[in-house]
Amino acid sequence: MEDWKGRRVFITGCTGFVGSWLSKELIEKGAHVIGLIRDVSQDSLLSLTGDINKITVVYGSVENYYLVERILNEYSVDTCFHLAAQSIVLTANRSPLSTFKTNIMGTWNVLEASRRLGSVKRVVIASSDKAYGEQNSLPYTEEMKLLGRNPYDASKACADILAQSYYQSFSLPVVISRCGNIYGPGDINFSRIVPDTMRSLIFDRNPIVRSDGSYLRDYIYIKDAVRGYILLAENLDNSDIWGEAFNFGSEKPIKVIDLVNLIIEISGKTQLTPKILGTAKGEIKAQYLASQKSKKMLGWRNEYSLIEGLKETYSWYKKFLLKK
Fold first, then answer.
1. For position 278, what pLDDT does the model report?
2. Which residues of 135-158 are buried (b: 16+ CB within 10 A; e: fewer)?
3. Considering the chain, what is the average pLDDT of its residues?
4. Predicted local distance difference test score (pLDDT) of residue 2
5. So which residues are the catalytic ones?
6. CB-side exposure of 15: number of CA atoms within 13 Å?
7. Residue 312 domain flag
8. Where does residue 31 rank: exposed (0-12), middle (13-18), buried (19+ CB within 10 A)?
9. How does pLDDT run across 61-74, given as a tens digit for each residue?
10. Is position 117 within any domain?
11. Largest CB tally within 10 Å, which of 4, 74, 198, 313?
């Protein structure tokens, strides 16, 4: 399935960072996108580009089961991308209950509504590399147990397991994505290292590193991640991948301090230096993915190098922030 023209696609979290980019790509492919929006943000890329005017918008919460079922039914949805989530680790630590409600209840609502109606042909669930938790060996591979322990990680592990359960119990045509740290134009969550570092540099401030800088992470450019999501949906015509999880990462992990220094180099503001706080608590020291399964079974490749992606991203933030 590669022809998206006229297909009715439901995206939860469509105004989020990934949701905005996914909506844009599917609009360009000719899909009829129905987007669920809880909070309206004028800074969402979906709003900034005007793409919000090219989709059918439904206002409400993914925690409302009957709303989710109504959308899938009344709009005759063919494909569902479930991206809606509370995605900030620090927010989850401050308020775990609201994070669990959104990330876990929201997932079972999408799965159960798809099961009950029986008309949805493809369901893609967004999990995360964080669901793996702390493992004895790296990189993470898809057959590893999900050991997420802090609130955000645990919520994504639960959502992931729920998706697997709905395939095993009800043969729901569902597949799971586990991405590394996604970055790129349009991410306005400035608690994340890439947006925050770029904002600091653009306003001539020394960037802040909350950890000691040695934490090892996997960064994937937004365009590569969105291509992975679309490939997952296109391959769901093949029942062999139902219930499966797929990693999407660069396979080139980098220390946080090296990432920040690379962004400084790209900005040209080498007079600025990182301020290392060393205050981060409860975070896993090293997290990165193996993506061989996605390459072999889906034909996916990450096309952007880290430096290419960061250059495009810095250019976008510079225009966005200075305009504001």
1. 87
2. eeebbbebebebebebbbbbbbbb
3. 96
4. 74
5. 152
6. 20
7. no
8. buried
9. 999 999 999 999 99
10. yes
11. 198
